[in-house]
Specification:
Length: 130
């Protein structure tokens, strides 16, 4: 119930608080299975996914570090998100994603992942965990 309310609020408030520029046909996002890549500079990109894509089978990838936050963990569960370990080959998460893609889902990935305080892409980081 709360998720449906959240989605309604997203549809109402995003046009009010943002200036969106759409290039191409946004209706394509609601057809077939595919992968959407979004540049992840701020927090709002995660919400924009649900503004542009009007589907129940969105495969949202979230960094495993977000499991530590109770509200994010709850929200991710409600949105059927997949937590992925960015520092190793997370075969379990990849199996889940592939299964859902084969079933017709649309995967959303944000490769930037780390935001900087000024909103510009963050400094590149080593893939090795220290």
């Amino acid at each position: 119930m709360l998720i449906k309310l959240f989605l309604i609020l997203v549809k109402i408030f995003i046009p009010i608080i943002t200036r969106l520029e759409i290039h191409g046909d946004p209706k394509l996002l609601n057809q077939d299975n595919h992968i959407v890549v979004a540049n992840h500079i701020g927090v709002l990109e995660g919400v924009l996914v649900y503004y542009f894509i009007d589907r129940d089978d969105i495969i949202l990838l979230l960094a495993e570090k977000h499991k530590r936050t109770r509200i994010v963990r709850w929200f991710a569960g409600q949105m059927n998100a997949v937590f992925i370990d960015r520092y190793k080959a997370d075969t379990n998460a990849l199996r889940i994603v592939l299964k859902r893609l084969e079933a017709g889902g649309v995967m959303v990935v944000s490769p930037e992942g780390t935001r900087s305080p000024d909103g510009w892409p963050g400094r590149r980081r080593s893939r090795r965990r220290k």
